[in-house]
Amino acid sequence: MLDQIIPFAGAPSKNEISQRITNVQSGMADQGLDFYLCVNPDNIFYLTNFANFVHERPFILLVPSKGKPVFLMPKLEEPHVRSRSVGELEYLHYFEFPAPTGQQWSDRLTTVLLAEHKVGIETFCPMAIAREVPGSIEATDIVDEVRMIKSEYEIGRIAYTCNLLSKGHAQLLTGARPGRMIVELHSQATSTMTKRMLMDNPNSNLLNSKFAAIAQPPEISHDPHNFTDVFMKFAQGGPHVSIVSGLANGYGGEVERTFFMNTVPEKARAPFNDMLEGRALAYELTVPGNSMSEVDRKVNDFFKSKGYGPNLLHRTGHSFGVTNHEAPFLAEGYEHEIKPGMVFSIEPGFYIQGVGGFRFSDTVLITEKGNKKLTDAPESLEELTVDGKPSFVDSAKSLMMKVLTKGSKN
Amino acid sequence: MLDQIIPFAGAPSKNEISQRITNVQSGMADQGLDFYLCVNPDNIFYLTNFANFVHERPFILLVPSKGKPVFLMPKLEEPHVRSRSVGELEYLHYFEFPAPTGQQWSDRLTTVLLAEHKVGIETFCPMAIAREVPGSIEATDIVDEVRMIKSEYEIGRIAYTCNLLSKGHAQLLTGARPGRMIVELHSQATSTMTKRMLMDNPNSNLLNSKFAAIAQPPEISHDPHNFTDVFMKFAQGGPHVSIVSGLANGYGGEVERTFFMNTVPEKARAPFNDMLEGRALAYELTVPGNSMSEVDRKVNDFFKSKGYGPNLLHRTGHSFGVTNHEAPFLAEGYEHEIKPGMVFSIEPGFYIQGVGGFRFSDTVLITEKGNKKLTDAPESLEELTVDGKPSFVDSAKSLMMKVLTKGSKN
Question: Closest by alpha carbon to B142, among B13, B290, B33?
Fold first, then answer.
């Protein structure tokens, strides 16, 4: 099953959703829970296909040990919850938040949850919700655990997102030129991805869709979460680090590359190759049966042996699903076994002040025996040294701008 | 002070931030707290000017009873926290999440918080954070309380956002024509607002900026949170309900109108006037010294007396600040006093299946003696019956499309 991936853009079937509920109920049975209470919008989307606006009005999904979930929500939201949700649900609404005593969401909650119930809640659950639960509560991430192993449907959806992102990444590399504003290509590539998604599925939910197609230019690529300057430009040389990531109608992925424009600085060659070597090791290790912690430790040990210890800033990978950043993690100290059907980013990297950042990331499915990349982008230094010369069209545009702005201030 | 509003696009001063910390510390003293722990990104932004990407790696701001806050964060994020933040901070980082025992974020936390400390936490605080706090915890929304009264700086920032939104709203009404896709105008107006913001302050943080400029056409305006169809079009007649809202570099606002295109259906006239009457009552009541609960109750009673009881779906208003939806609320059951320096949406409305939605919303400052709208949009039925005839340019475009697509399938 995990070798035949069919990219898919549509909504889940009732069976898909009911299987997820069954999996959650099975986890609940192991822990002797009467109800499981979800407020995390990602978990609610996973179990209902409904992506909510989260303001201060609570949406609470109550999964009973048997039978269909009860969805508690503001009255205002019920019509489109009904039109968007998939699967069997019992609807329960409250009028408004805040509300007079007796008409609050918590009053409705206690029509379902009783003092004798043992209720599982997410570790994400805010205190304000947890403290209103009658009976005993137990913080346990059952839905997050179920989400770790992807169904055939989910793999198809993630593969679909990865196809969009791979095209967006190609568009970014093709359009990059020294001096061009990165935000310009971000606009173009995200617009292309959004339109493609809407053509493939006109019912796509924009509340649950977002795309980014950016790159860090050489002067800041050593600081991998620095996006503070909106007007950053591509530059001659490198390393640049591209980041194309997104959530297409509820399913996530990412693809990232270290790349150069026209020339490769001599000081960047050895780090680039060392990063590739660490990455090859990560792919070799990220297979069923291995420990997630061990993957990260061995990759970090390899980088440390090459002298990059002080340049490490993050773990080897994270997972995807209904988000593009979630558990499980390829991280030292995270002692869990890698299993078929999981999806990880494999993105070991390091960051050298004065040289730049070195990281590739792909969205990778764990198969029965190994792993398989769902994203696609160039991998060799040759392919990633892109031709950044202004095109004929750019030259013409630039000339036209000069003529049009003649006489205006610089 | 509250009568002289100076719209302002820049970052807060050190003094502005330090005054906020002082206000929080004063609230902490009243409750005998040694530390206050913030994880809500909005509260962290309010107290540091740093808007974070929230993934699974915790950012925790610890405000002590005296002196400067300690900001616990992933190592990866420290450089741009330092470049973005305003005010005195002590930086404390952990390497990664997850991490081996002894190197986790919670290990760092316990270098600051001790077993004998009394620690305030947000009601928003997730269980996963709350349970790692040594010592006794008390869920209390001190920062949210401080945020309720706006400083001169904040009023300037909100007024600035409201100016952008008012322009975006005018652009939406000007461009609306029967048959035109709403998403097309949304793209245009949000792009205009974003560009204007970046021109006024090139350091604006896009992580903390978002704009919407949409409208619900007559067939769904009775269902006020229904945005499920991406391809919705403006239509002849009405009521349409516009929603122009946003967060410009961290400060929020909204402006909304019920409007018509070319003609006003007879059945919509009385509801439109009744809504205006309820709205006038809300403005009269939303003044210093009055109870927030009472405003909503009296407005609802007025609507009920007109027979709209079954058509009510939401409270009269909510507040703005570093979000565009927050406490305090003009809501029955919310027993708090209205004070100068608060900012509310005043948006009483009702929704009639088969007729449509009736609601105006503005962002309104409470002054020493009354209130003052910070947003600006037409208010009369005449001005809100817009000329929706295709323009010459539209006709030419449409003709050109016909020529270009001649022979292609419909």
Answer: B33
pLDDT in tens, A393-403: 666 666 666 66
Please tell me which of the candidates A100, A223, A315 has its beta carbon nearest to residue B96.
A315
Residues of A in contact with B327 (CB under 8 A): 56
Evaluate if residue B405 carries a pLDDT over 60: no
Nearest to A96 among B76, B123, B315 (CB): B315
| pLDDT score for B2 | 65
Q: Say whether A231 sits in a helix, a strand or coil.
A: coil
pTM of the model: 0.93
Cα distances (Å, whole numbers) of residue B225 to A71, A218, B338: 17, 44, 27
CA-derived radius of gyration, chain A: 24
- What sign does the dihedral A52-A53-A56-A57 (CA atoms) show? negative
Placement of tokens 């290990």 in the chain: B107
Indicate the DSSP class of residue B337.
B
Predicted-complex ipTM score: 0.92
**A135 or A245, which is more confident?**
A245
Q: Over 60: is that where the pLDDT of A220 sits?
A: yes
Question: Across chain B, how many H-helices and E-strands are there?
Answer: 11, 17
**Which superfamily does A152-397 belong to?**
Creatinase/methionine aminopeptidase superfamily (3.90.230.10)
Torsion angle, CA of A403/A404/A407/A409, rounded to 10 degrees?
-120
Residues of A in contact with B79 (CB under 8 A): 223, 226
Q: In the structure encoding, which two tokens stand for residue B60, read together?
A: 């925790």
Across the interface, whether the CB atoms of A227 and B204 are under 8 A apart is answered no
**Looking at the partner chain, which of B225, B318, B327 has a beta carbon nearest the beta carbon of A80?**
B225
Distance CA B35, CA B63 (A): 5
Pairwise CB contact (< 8 Å): B80 & A123? no
Q: Given pLDDT bands bounded at 50, 70 and 90, which one contains residue A407?
A: very low
Q: Do B98 and A331 touch (CB under 8 A)?
A: yes
**Which residues make up the CATH 3.40.350.10 domain(s) of chain B?**
14-147
Pair A258, A238: CB distance under 8 Å:
yes
Using DSSP, state whether B40 is helix, strand or coil: coil
Q: What angle do CA A317, A318, A319 make, to 5 degrees?
A: 135
- pLDDT tens by residue, B159-176: 999 999 999 999 999 999
Q: Could you give the residue range(s) of every CATH 3.90.230.10 domain in chain B?
A: 152-390
Architecture of domain B152-390: Alpha-Beta Complex (3.90)
Per CB-CB distance under 8 Å, the chain B contacts of A206 are 227, 230
Position B52 pLDDT exceeds 90: no
Give the rounded distance of the alpha carbon of B395 from its chain centre: 37
As given in the structure block, the two tokens for residue B88 are 């005195």
pLDDT of residue B389: 77
Q: Which of A41, A44, A4, A3 is nearest to A20 (CA)?
A: A44
How many C-beta atoms lie closer than 10 Å to residue A372's C-beta? 14
pLDDT at A227: 85
Buried/exposed B366-383: b ≥16 CB within 10 Å, e otherwise: bbeeebebbbebbeebee
CATH of domain B14-147: 3.40.350.10
